[in-house]
Design a protein that fits this description.
The protein folds into 3 domains: 75 residues, no CATH class; 83 residues, Orthogonal Bundle (T-fold), CATH 1.10.3980; 123 residues, Roll (T-fold), CATH 3.10.520.10. Helices cover 32% and strands 27% of the residues. An 8-stranded antiparallel β-sheet has the order 3-4-8-9-14-19-20-21. It is globular and about 60 Å long.
């Protein structure tokens, strides 16, 4: 039995940055959501305005954590998770936005994505509790699975409020970081910045250029525990990108590998050959959620849905001990337009 690192950083920013006189982007960094954030701003900027921008960014990240963190017992969703069934629970507009997106995504994926999956994540040891690196008993999985089901959530986006007649627990682990990246990008736009890159834990949004005529570039990692080799590098132009994968977040027990990606429809970790899914989208919230959903669906159903939804997707799959890359038509079109 062996325990591996339980974090993901599946996108590698292909650039170097520092504050210098050669035109390199200015950098703002910090910690949030159990990981780090990094913002690169190209073009002229006054140090006083950057200080104000950094303070505003920190305040927004603190607010998002206070709304959406399952590690904070007094966060908004944690308080909802303790509320009595049937009672309308008032939501902040940000929380309502993420929940509305999550419910729509759950419908589009037939439940492969489910914002109520939290109890299963905890049961399998990939949540707040310390993992025992042991698969739970089958009967326990079936009991906890009855606590899952986005269909029981009733969201009123006008109020906004949410209620559930039988009790459900929200978990935004697959959407909160993406939403946060978009929120920081919105702050930068409001501050008048038009060339920047925002990254939180490997999920990114770019706007404008790094330098005149030089777009921001990113890369998709090869799925490897031992190294950080690159599968493909390409420009990221006024777009978002996120990756979901299991090659650094799993445990092994009795010779069997258990992924951190759990299928809410079955209650068990995925077992298909997909190792990572990368999505390019107009918002990081979309890229974040879709990457997780398609990873659950796997190569056949996932790539079919990507085609149906016109999603720009790269799926890396191991077949017969060989790595195979599946690229959607929308991703190929994106590359053709950006290169």
């Amino acid at each position: 039995m062996q325990c591996f690192m339980r974090y993901l950083f599946l996108l590698l920013i292909v650039l170097t940055s520092s504050c210098s006189d050669d035109g390199a982007p200015l950098e703002l960094t910090g910690k949030t959501m159990g990981t780090t954030y990094r913002i690169l701003i190209a073009g002229p900027a006054k140090s006083s305005s950057l200080t104000e921008t950094h303070e505003q960014i920190e305040r927004k990240l603190i607010q998002i954590n206070a709304l959406m963190s399952t590690y904070d017992s007094e966060s908004e969703i944690s308080r909802f998770n303790r509320t009595r069934p049937g009672a309308p629970f008032s939501l902040h507009a940000d929380t309502a936005e993420v929940l509305a997106f999550s419910l729509a995504l759950a419908d589009k994926t037939g439940g492969a994505f489910d914002p109520t999956i939290g109890p299963l994540v905890e049961l399998w040891g990939f949540g707040r509790a310390t993992s025992t690196d042991q698969a739970p008993p089958d009967d326990r999985i079936q009991v906890v699975k009855q606590q899952i089901g986005y269909q029981s959530l009733q969201l009123d986006t006008d109020a906004p409020t949410v209620k559930t007649p039988i009790g459900r627990q929200l978990d935004f682990s697959a959407t909160a970081k993406g939403f946060a990246v978009d929120a920081l990008a919105a702050i930068l736009v409001q501050q008048g910045h038009s060339n920047f890159l925002v990254e939180i834990g490997g999920e990114l949004f770019s706007k404008g250029e790094k330098r005149p005529g030089q777009p921001w570039r990113v890369a998709i990692e090869m799925p490897s525990n031992a190294s950080r080799a690159i599968y493909r590098a390409f420009p990221l132009i006024d777009s978002a990108i996120a990756t979901s994968g299991d090659y650094r977040n799993y445990f092994e027990s009795n010779g069997q590998r258990f992924s951190h990606t759990i299928d809410p429809r079955t209650g068990y970790p995925i077992t298909h050959a997909t190792t990572s899914v990368t999505v390019v989208a107009s918002t990081t919230l979309e890229a974040d959620g879709w990457a997780t959903a398609l990873n659950v669906l796997g190569p056949v159903a996932g790539m079919q849905l990507a085609a149906d939804q016109n999603l720009a997707v790269v799926m890396l799959v191991f077949e017969k001990n060989e790595l195979k890359a599946l690229e959607s038509a929308a991703f190929k079109d994106y590359l053709a337009q950006s290169l």
